[in-house]
Write a structure and sequence with these properties.
By secondary structure, this protein is α/β, with parallel strands linked by helices. Helix content is 41%, strand content 15%. Helix 8 links the parallel strand 8 and strand 9. The model is unreliable at 76-80 (pLDDT under 50).
Amino acid sequence: MSNRRIPKYMQLKNELLSWFETGKLQPGQQVPSENEISEQFGISRQTVRQTFGELEKEGWLERIQGKGTFARNPLRREGEQVKTIGIITTYISDYIFPHIVRGAEAELRSKGYRLLLSSTDNNKEKEMESLQLMTSQPLSGLIIEPTKSAEGNPNLSYFLSLQEKGIPYLMINEKYRELECPCLKVDDELGGYLAARHLLEKGHTSIVGFFKRDDLQGVNRLKGFLAAHREFGISVSPQRVVTYTTEEKDGVPYTQAVQLLQQDEEGRPTAFVCYNDQLAVVLMEAVQQCSLRVPEDVSVVGFDDSSLALASGTKLTTLTHPKTEMGELAARQLIGIIEQGLVVEDTVFKPEIVERESVHNREQANQEVELQS
């Protein structure tokens, strides 16, 4: 059962639901006690209680006072398989991903589907393992976030196998370019453009962009960043673009930011556009480390409008991401494909700037200085 990337209660939930799939648990059969489950899987009784509570709400378990907990099966009629949809994302338990998963899970549960979860840590081999896990059992459909989408698709055979078996799937955040499947995504190029344009309109001409290069989201956000500069007639020097891979995300951007900020005032950047809010928070710390201030010395723009945008002392200006709505809609569309044979087109969400405290208006400040002089 052990998988560090999935919360323990969800791992246990998937395990118990698989007992229904395999017939290990039959309707009316008594389920092992909380103590027994806790000992068997080496997890706390609180985690077991949480899992039992969810399964009871969904109609899979029934507690009978003084007797114990018994199995039910709300979905299975005679000869009918349990309806199961899998979700494979790069991450599950941090950043914006819990919102996406919760949105999908709520929609699936309301339509009588159970959910299988797996994550890849943005690693191609782990994506292969996740696809193997999902396709090794009866499956109604899949919601997939591609792994390192800018680096090709070595797991193409698994996607072709899904098509061959008639298992529908759709992708979120991006899709592999050679696959013809519905995709729900943010217009990342527009987001990168809006972030840079916002700073350019505030009088910033020395902006550094930090973008992941192994995901198409980062590639497209960089494309928009460069387009905004072209529109304003400002060239972007090589030092003003920092790209990095998933493996480098905890080191390269921070190190590069510190080096850029340690230049004299004339050569120092006045603003950062960040691949996401997670990175923006890290780079705001780099600004402080260099004895500078956000936004007075360095303005910062993030992406995704996550909870992190409001968590630091200086509230972060950022771009919106639909998160929960994306999860809900992905589940709704996939169920429509499964049950009604719907033909679904790509869904592209338009991001918008959310203005907060992390951007300094240099244009206005310069005008005030001129008036005073």
